[in-house]
Structures are given as structure tokens and as C-alpha cells.
Amino acid sequence: MRLSLLFVAFGLVDGGRTGTTSHSKCTYRDSSPDTIFKRQGSASACPVPQDVTVTAPRGTPFMPLSQPELDSIVEWLGSSGLGLNLSDPSSPTLAMSDNYISHIETLKPNKTDVLDYLRGDSSSVPRYARVMINEGAATVPGVVQYYVGPLPISDTTTMRPLDYFYNGPNGPKVLYSGGLFDAPRQRAVEAIVASTMSGIADITLDLTGLVYYGSTDNRTNSEYFVQNPYSTDGTTGVVWLPWRRFAKAPWDQPSDLYVSFDIAGTDASLYHLRMIVYNLVVYNSTDDLRAAWSAGEITKTPKPTTNDSFLDKDRTGAMRDLEDRFAPTVLNLDGKRYRVDTVNNYLTYMGWSFYTRFDKDVGIQFYDIRFKGESVLVDALVQYAGNNPFQTGTAYSDRFYGIGSEAIRPIPGYDCPYHATYLNATYTSGTSVQTISKAICIFEADIGTPLTRHKVYSDWEQSTKGSKLVVRMISTLGNYDYIWDYGFVVDGSITLDAYASGYVQANYYRPDDAGRWGPRIGETIAGTMHTHVMNFKADFDLVDARNTFVRTGLVVENVTQPWYPERGAFESMRYDVRELATEAEGLLDSPPNGQAMYTVVNKQQLNAWGEPRGYRVVPGVSNVHLPSPRSPFLLRSGQHAKQAFAVSRQHDTEPASTAALSGNVPEAPLVEFWGFFADDEPLQQEDLVVWANLGMHHFVRSEDLPNTLATEAHASLVFAPQNWGSGGENTRDLANAVIFHSDDTDAVGVPVPETNGVDAPACLVLGPDDELLGAYTG
């Protein structure tokens, strides 16, 4: 996720057209409504666009482990004489106090090794596995990560703690109570929850209309959710369970009941009830609750509504005018203009080329992006707030649940355009290889505006079509679907877009809250304020790995000028250009009023005018960070989300800003992001990494039901060329452009459009207003 290489100049990769200087006129065609839908055999029908292939210059160094490789590692761990004393992780009697393998996946290769391989300086990249073992039988139980290799298994294979990845207080170990919530622990928690709640079922039925006798008991009509984080540093284990109706979208059917348990350690006999909260009144035991209930001392609040029709998404109401017509869509009328190597997950498009990788934690990643050379990593985090023990103490790290493992197949024509190209997502989960069919969609899109256009009085007029390649992944993480778009624009820009939609995690509505944590959005529910933060990593190698981060501020100052003597001192603007010297300056906020430009440049690589070549980091929509810097639930585990941008030196020992298991140990995470900056390394002409946060402060509204609207729940970022080329902007070689010259006319004096030989295909239905001839009026 952190690899980048040399710039490669733009050039068409389709190979289907060559440059031309002949003029081409657009003619009026049959405009009957069914022309475009005629069968392929018809002379005027557009052919279905076919995928076009490319062969990667080198086989991908990012291949996931195969099932035989996984099996060989499992066998070696069990028979290597390491004394691991492993139990079968699939055993139905597996206990928390056992040692067992939790997960195995490919260890991400070091950037230096991959660079050598892709440059041809080595024949292969060393291959290792990352192994996560639940060590419940250890003197100090926990979940420990190791690396095993080199692979394939041989006499030289070893297993070592993965301590060079993690700078937290416990190295590659998370103490047990902050570790995995896997099957053995789920069974232990379920046992005490079912026992406790069945004993007060008559009370909960009266107060909330909900009962719980266990997840498999037919009398049960409710469910609970295990709050995150459920530990502080791995030594404690405290959880609050909100109670919800077991039905459609339970996130939006909460009750006013919350129950807390202590679930620390591997001995389930020590698990116990801590307290019960109803109507914000604390009861320290079931006996206290029953005594108050029997005495009629409990003030009841409204039960959660049983009318859940407000959660339906089926179409209702009268159809809007002309809504019976098919909505606009993306079409590849002349065939696809990108190429894909599905074996190596390698793509080329209009001068761009890159490899992709997929894993369980974060999903799709990009490597060796040739044009500007940078890579991207995504992580997501959500912090909630509210006036109850569950909402106040909730801070999800979606990486914990597996952003990649929760990827879904997009719906053709709705989630992705028709005729998109799809890639399977293959990753490892536990000790098995998993594949999500067609989880990644790839398509070229019209960006909706021309990249450049201008009319020069009566001399000439031009317009250059704007397009980009989009690689999209969608993951369903509980109540939300996240959409991630990575766009590669033909002008050399890279766009990052993140969207959220789904069911909000609603709060129980209390009139006395007075909307301080969100407005009322239903009969018994209120919206819950929360913040989504998604952390992206971009490793810049602009031409080479010697880069500098520059802040160009727009400052206002008082000046006097001899040509304005009557003005005296007056306000004017200028640039204030400063380079980040060391990592002590590397934690950055978004510039107020946008009055600064962040740029990564290579001072030793100049364009024709002597300007350092670089790329801008352009904030887009909603580049937010956590509003609460000292929340105990994200104390040290959420450091990566506490500033808009950060700049650090690239190190193979700092591959990610967080870790999947950090979310439940906020005081002792595996990765402390601010530790990357503690050595205060120099940043000028060094190998730099930019960490950028996107997200949304979700101000919940009634329009979030049934599902949040993605139009507003949207965040974006652009990496844009800055003095990158010597010949100006990077679109002059594009053939999908038109220019009119006033002195280049036909026989009757009408300026003729120059379209570079690229015209709309014959199957596209055009009307009189689409005619190019005559569009230029001089």
C-alpha cells in the first residue's frame, strides 16, 4: 500500500486510433427512440463493449496466499517443534483458554524489496505470512502476531514476533480482554447474558416489550450488540449492551434498556453483571431492579414502536413525471478504453498503470501507480455521542470488523454502470481462502464537465472532454454501506471519494434530551450525532523517493506602493512559501478559508521553467477529523484520526496508521500513530508519506430514514499535478477534443470542427441540437 515508482508520460494505451489532422463533421442520424437498443446484428446497433487485456510488465508481488500455502503453514506450525500447543480452531469445544490460530494472511512486502523487483534488480520478492495466534493458555493470555517465512515452507522457514510493525506498549500482542470477539468468547458472553436476561424477562417485557432467553430460543424477540471498545488496555473487559427489537434494521428499533457486564479474562465463571440502566436510572443488580419494579418505583418510558414500516425502502407514492423513463447511464459506445490483466490485477488507462491488492482488513489498495507514483490505504473509524451508556462509549474501528471481508458484489446498472469490468476479491480469513465474486467494479466515467474550454473572441473555440477511470468498492459494515471510489483522471489527477449510506444507529428518543445529541426522527427514536473518519495513506515518489512537503500560504499584509500614493497603507496579498523541515511540523489541520496550498515536490526534478515538479494535496468535501481529541474511548488508538493531514518519513516498519486489534485497547493499541513522529526525522528531499483523513460529521436528520442519503454523506480529496509537465497542462495530447478556427470553413463559410478523427459512433442517436457544424458562432 505504500509503493510508488517513476513517472511515465501520458499516451493512449488502447492503440485503436492514431492522430489525425483531417476535419470531421458530425451528421444527423436516425433519432427514432429504439435505434440505440437494436440488436447487435443491426447495422446501427452499438456492439457490447468487450474487455481488453494487457499483460503486466512483471508478475504481481502482491498475490494472496493460496489454500495449499495456508495448509502448509498450518501444518508447519503444528509440527515445527515450537511448542505452540495449538488446538483446532474449528472445534465446537474450543475454549478461550486454548491456543489456536486466529488468522493467517500474506505479510505485506517491504517497499524496498518490491522496488528492486519491479525495477528488475531482483527476480522475486521475499514472501512471508502474518500469523495471528490466540494464546489463551499463556501465563499472560493474549492475541499475538508473528511472521513466518520465507515461503514456501522449507528448512530455512522461521517464526518470529511481528514486533517491527507495532510500536505500542505490548509490541505485537493485545492482552486477552481487548482481543478478538470470536466464537469461544461469544459463547461465554452469550451464556451469562441469556442467564441474566431470562431471569428478568417478565420485567423487560413490561418495561420495553422485549424479552431475551437466548439467541436460539423461539421466545426471544430482542437482540443485543457488544459495544466497542470493550476494554481499555486489554486487562479490563467491560461492555454495555443496548437492547433492540429483533426485527428489520434493529439499529433503528432501540429500547430504553442498557445492561453492562464484566467480561475480563479467559475464565467465564468470573464474568458478572455490573449494572442495569433503564430510563437513565442505574440498578446495580437484578435484585435492585426487581425490588424497584415490584414496588412500582420505576417510571416507564414508551416502548419501542412495533410499526417498523418507516424502515421500508420499497417504492411508495405516485410516480414522478417522466420517471417511467430509464435514467441516464454511462455507455462505452466505442468500446472500453482501459485494459486489465486479471491474473496480476494490473490496469492501464490513458497513460495510467497500477497494480491492485486486496486484503481482509482494508480491502483494495493500489501500488506502483505510474504517472506520479503514490499509493493509497483506507481505514475507517466512527465515534458516537449520546446521553446513554451505549452511545457515549461507542467508538467503532471498522478495520476490526474487516472492511475487505465485508465487501459486497455491486448491483449492475445501479451501483456500477452497465458494462463495467468486475474483479474478484480474494483474501484469507482464518485459515481459509475466501473469494467475493465481482466485488470490485471498474468503469470509465464522463466527469460531467470539460477538462478545459475557452472561446477566444471571434478567433477560435475549443473544448476537451473530461473523463476518468473509476475503481469502486462497496462494503457493508453493520448498519452502514461505505462506497469507496478511486478515480484516475486523464489530466493526471487522482480523486478519492467516500460515501456512506444505510441505517443510522438511532438513539432512544427522550424529550428531555432537547435534541442535544440529535433530533427526533421517529416515534421512539432520535438521530445520534457521530463522526466518520477514513484515513488514507499516500506514499509519494515523484520521479524518485526524494520529496519535500511545501505549505504555500496566502497571507494578507499592509503595503504601501509608490503608484498608489493616495491609498497610504492598504491590504494586499502574497504567498508565504515554507517547507516542512522535520516531523515535528508534520501534524496539520485543513487551512482555514482554504488559504494555503499543500504540495509534495521533488526539488531536484525541475520542469522546463525551473519549477520543482510536484503534486498538490487538494482538500475536497468534508476533510474532517475527530472533534474530541481526548476521548477515553479513542485515547491512543485514534491518533491517526485527530488531524486532517499528516506528513512523515516512509518506513517499512510503519506500514499503516492503525491496526485491526487496536480498536478495543484505546490505552494500549498495537500502533500509536503519533509515535511515527517522535524521532522528529527530517522531511526535506526524503521518502515521504502523506496521511489524509476524509469523513463526515453526521448531523442526523429525518431524511436519514429509511437510508442515509449519500449525496450529503460524502467526502473527497484530489491529488493534482503541480508544475508537473514542461508543456503546461496534460491534456493537449487528448484526441477527444474539438476546436473551431474562424478561418477554417466549409464552402458556405461555416467553421468546420476539428475532432481529431474521433466522432460519435453511428449507433448513437443524435438530434439536430447535437450537430457540431454550426455550433461555433464566431
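(the above was protein one; protein two follows)
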Amino acid sequence: MLDLGTSFLASVARDPQALALVDGEVRFTYAQWLDKISALVAAFDRLGLKPGDHLLTALQNGWQSATVHWACQLAGLIITPINWRVNADELDFCIENSEGRALVYQDVSEPSVRASILAGELVILRAGSTTRPGEFSLDAFCNEKAPEAVARISAEAWSVMLYTSGTTSRPKGVPRRHRAERAAGIAHVAQNLYHRGERTLGVMPLYHTMGVRSLIAMSLIGGTFVCLPRFDAKRALDLIASEGITNLYLVPTLYHDLVYCDDFARSDVSSVRKLGFAGASMTDGLLQKLAEAFRPELFVNHYGSSEIYTFTIDQNAPAKPGSAGKAGINQLVKTVKLNAASVNDVASAGEEGEIVALLGGDESFEGYWRRPDADARALRDGWYFTGDTGYVDAAGDLFVTGRVDDMIITGGENVSPVEIESCLSLHPAVLEVAVVGLPDERWGKVIAAFIKRSRRVSEEELDKFCRESGLAAFKRPRCFVFVDTIPKSPVGKLLRRLLVAGEYQVELMPPSNAV
């Protein structure tokens, strides 16, 4: 297996004049981009950074963040990207945990960098046109002349360390080798049927596994990565039309915002022929809406994680709503009984259990960064216990029903919130929905549905809809709460714990177009 640096050099040799990167007015061919990357590799050397050092980034998607990523692959540095919204305490944790040697940031993250206790001990590079005393200019480094960079590490070296979201505890570092990253990129190309010269919208952040995979996949096929620093539906629609975007790979929340944007009906999205989503389940209602709006040639549900990029793939998601399909080309998965003592305690067809994936797959990680406690919980007998619940149907397709921690136990019955959300999403007045279990003295938990509505609808109407849809009585929500927003993480993952904790704002007034 090639290391990623050599892989990128091979891409430049194949398609030197192909358009590689777009970021506003910045447009680089592969040859031009390599010049910038090579200059940055030379700068890393002058700064004393060595293969195996961790370089942290707090950057939005742009030419600088993408250039730093590839420069690290050639220089042998372990790029350790963190959310640009990071606060000072989180930044200090990541610096200390990773033993970081350098940090690249931009103005949007400046307050946290300034408030950080540990950042001052690192080599600091700032993206943009200005710097502060003691900092180096990333842009100036990239504009220098330097010999063409050569790869200096093997496919066995560490490539990247992503941090998990840490919604319930401190985030965990997920180190991944060059060979695993490249295998994941190749699988992404194959499973999404990408062809040479594809153009993707680079909006999933490069601190997230989906963003990194899009970047690598485009380089493998001489494709174009069109940067969008932060998601804005109107701007995304403009870029789709002006740059001829051919594929989208987004979380369901971003698709929702895109297709419900006021400008969508007036926008030209005809260039988009392939849709892919990951990061969360997609409701039946949104699947239908997207299939009708884009009429794509391919609509892929990709189920995976930071730890093991691909678990399963369904290449025709609308045909079997809710199905995550079958194992990817580099993977073997199964479901085991909840709280199983062994990976051999396999759940029956149709029985809900915990999803586990083989650690021997080409895309797999090998364990968390200095977290033996996390390894002990998640890695057993050569398998990765995902913490996700699901079942396999009679046809062998996997259905992901939620998280083990999200399972609602009401009156002794296990209820998946995803099933209820998919049902309610089909009601025309429901714009977004999240279902959780709230404490109850008698039942243990009662099912509550939080609804963002597009027009006025009553609790009685929604309950009747659930009943007529065939939802079992014990699965029907016992209360409905109308809210203005559903809490989500920066990459669009539903934050049920905030709803359970009461951290939400009830709807201030019915929708303006209520009937």
C-alpha cells in the first residue's frame, strides 16, 4: 500500500493540469497545489518539525486547511485537526493529550488560542494575511519557492488523529495509519462509483472523518475539492451551480437545510448525479424529498465511524428506507445480543442487538490514543463494539436503530427512537423531529417527541398519524413538545442528551404560515 504522500504525488503526475482545489477566487491545478504543499513541507523542516510530531489545526475548510493536510502527509507529521469552534479548555486538553508540537489556526479561533494556557509553548502558524508577535504566517510560507517535496515515511506511519465528539466525556483520540486512510479513500471511490474528474462540495469539516475522506477520494481520481468554510444553504446552492458539483456527501441535517432552502426551487442542481450521506440516520420523509428533488443516479447510505471508516453501504437508499445495507468491501459486521459476553453471542435475524465490526479490516484503527479504558470497553476479541444498536433483516441488510445509550426502556420494552422519528417525519407538518425517553416513576421512561413544525398541527393529530401508520401502541409518544430548534452538534448530529436535560427552547409562537 502506498503512503498518502506518494499517492498524492502520483495523482499530480497523472493529472498535473486538472483542477484540484477551489476556494473562492483561489483555484489550483494539481501542479500548482503541489508547489504550495512543497513550500510548506520545507517550512516545517526549518521549524524543526519531524516525522511523528503532532501538528494541531483549528481551521475552517479552505485552501489553507487542505494544503496543511497534504503537507503533513508528505512531511510525515501526524495532522491532528480539531473543531475551529474549540474553547480554550478543550484546546489545552488536545494539546496535552496529543503532545502537540505545532498549531495552525485562523482568526475565527483566535480568542481560544489567546486564552489557552498551553498554546504558547507550541510553534504557531496563522492562516491569513496577519500575524501576531511570535507567530509565523502560513500563507507566506506557502508562497515561497521550494524543491518538490518527496514522501519520507511508509504506509505504516501515522497519518491523522481525529478526536471523537466527546458528547458525554472528554474526546478520544483516534490515530489512523497511512494505509488505513488510503484504503478508506479507495473504498469511498469504489462504493460511491466516483469517476475521474468528479467535483465534490468540500463542506464537511476536515476535523471530521467524512471531510477527510472526501479530500482523499478526490485526489485519487483527479477530482476537484470545492471548499465551503461553513455551511450556508444558499452559498452551497450557488457553488453547486457555478462549479458544476457532481456529487454531495453530507450529513442528513445539511441535506435537510439544502432542500428546504427558499432558493432551492430556483437553483440549478442538475450537475449533481450522486448523493451520499453518513453521520446519522436519515428519516423516510427526507429520503423521499431528496430523491424527488435531485433524481440522482446513485443515492448511498454510508454507515461508519472515525474508528473504522466503513461498516456498511446501501447504494440505493430510497428503495429500502432505513436500510444501511451490507458490509463494505473492506469489512465484516454482525449484530450481537445486547450486553453480550462474547462476539459469538450473535443476535437472530430481526433481533435488535449491538453492531460490531471486525478490526482486521483494511480501514480499521488499532485503538484509542492512550486510552486503555476505552480500548477495554470497545475492542474485544478482534472486534470493535460500536455502541450502536441495530438488526439484520431476512435479506441480510442492516438497520441501525440508534445508540445503546439512546435506547428507551418503557414498561420493560426496548424502543428505538429512530423508528418513531422516521414515522413522524412523514407527516407534512413535521419539519424536524427528535425522540427521547424522559424519566417516569411508573414506566421508567416515557416517550417524548420534540417537533419543529412547518405549520400548525396538534398533538392529537400527530398521535392519530402514528396510530394510523401502524406504530405499536407502546412505541407511540406520550407527549409532544413543539420547539423552534432541535439541538445538534457542529457536524449535525442530534444531541438527545440536551433534550433529556431540558436544555431546549419551546416554540415561541406557531409558524407564521399556520392554518
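Reviewer note on protein two: DSSP finds 15 helices and 26 strands in the chain.
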